[in-house]
Design brief:
single chain; TIM Barrel; 3-stranded antiparallel sheet; 8 helices; binds iron/sulfur cluster
Length: 337
């Protein structure tokens, strides 16, 4: 899917915003799409690398079927090169590895394990688009929901095609989309397509949540936090949840410190001041921090209590605050949507 033929058996892939021009016999930037004799092939179709059952809060979705379980999966490959990636063995591996599992088998595993949905996650799902698409179509038929955990770099046509079967997307922003940071630490030339992707999913009716990874010293500019929060309010909605995520040392960034709780608190205050109603902050250093909970934006009552990636209590009834009856923007849990 998503390529055009060029002269000399070259092809151009437009599955993602890299728009790689790929000569015959070579792979694209993601290393998992190969030009073979002028045709572009996915090398990871039905090559399942990771499979696990997670609470949906771990993805992290806080306003979508809270308390439900998702079957989380990925192949190898990624279209970013984040130096702080926490799954580099999946995203950056040179080898195409994985077990052959048919889309219908994936859906069967989800249903048999009492999962309410399927999450395409751990690496960028766009790079295994054809596999995700075929699974998503079948999953939908079986009454399961589909969610993408994405870096937001998919091309417009890919977004439109998957949106038909996609219930929700969490767009993982890094360093509040600071241009220099994206270039230096993710090999991403421009953050604008990520904003455009958020808007496209949103306009297509996909439930959108956003995370922003705050990395000390290199990706913690509070002005960028404010810019991002204002952009979300002006272009999406004040109801779109955002979660500031604390960095932990990983991959090629082992020399950087953990993000301080105080910094996350500042980010949260800035986003709230910018007008966003549901703002969270999470660090693995302090999983019980109350910034992880949902409060009523009108009366301030605690509505959903969480500990780390688990929901502990949910007092929202019929999408309303139990106390003041304010409408809460949330897609509530129901067995099989
Ligand atoms: S999906 Fe891969 S091959 Fe296609 S444009 Fe993106 S990085 Fe290039
Ligand atoms: S986009 Fe995600 S999976 Fe890909 S390299 Fe960056 S952090 Fe890793």
């Amino acid at each position: 899917m998503f390529y055009r033929k060029l002269e000399d058996k070259k092809v151009q892939c437009y599955l993602c915003e890299r728009n790689c021009v790929i000569p015959d016999g070579k792979v694209g930037f993601c290393k998992v799409r190969k030009n073979q004799n002028g045709k572009l092939y996915s090398l990871v179709y039905e090559k399942l690398q990771s499979l696990q059952i997670d609470p949906v809060e771990k993805k992290p979705f806080f306003h979508f079927h809270p308390g439900s379980q998702v079957l989380s999966l990925s192949t190898v490959g990624c279209n970013f090169r984040c130096k702080f990636c926490c799954n580099p063995n999946i995203s950056q591996t040179e080898k195409i590895v994985g077990k052959k599992v048919l889309p219908k088998e994936v859906v069967r595993i989800a249903a048999e394990n009492n999962c309410q949905g399927i999450a395409y996650t751990y690496t960028e799902p766009t790079v295994f688009f054809e596999y995700a698409y075929d699974i998503a179509k079948l999953a939908k038929k079986e009454g399961l929901y589909n969610v993408f955990v994405t870096n937001g770099y998919a091309g417009e046509e890919a977004i439109d095609k998957i949106s038909k079967y996609l219930d929700a997307a969490v767009v993982d922003v890094k360093g509040s989309l600071d241009q220099k940071f994206l270039r230096d630490y993710c090999s991403v030339p421009d953050g604008k397509p990520i904003l455009e992707a958020m808007k496209r999913y949103f306009d297509n009716g996909v439930h959108v949540e956003i995370t922003d990874l705050i990395i000390p010293k290199i990706g913690d500019d509070l002005k960028k936090v404010e810019e991002l929060a204002r952009w979300i309010k002006d272009n999406l909605s004040e109801n779109v949840p955002i979660q500031f995520i604390g960095f932990f040392p990983s991959y090629q960034c082992l020399n950087l410190p953990y993000t301080a709780v105080e910094t996350l608190k500042k980010c949260r205050n800035i986003a709230k001041k910018a007008g966003l109603k549901y703002v969270y902050a999470y660090t693995s250093q302090d999983p019980g921090n109350p910034m992880n909970n949902t409060y009523c934006p009108k009366c301030g009552e605690l509505l959903i209590a969480r500990y780390g990636c688990s929901m502990v209590d949910n007092k929202i009834k019929d999408q309303k605050c139990f106390s003041c009856k304010e409408k809460i923007s949330i897609v509530e849990y129901s067995h099989r949507c």
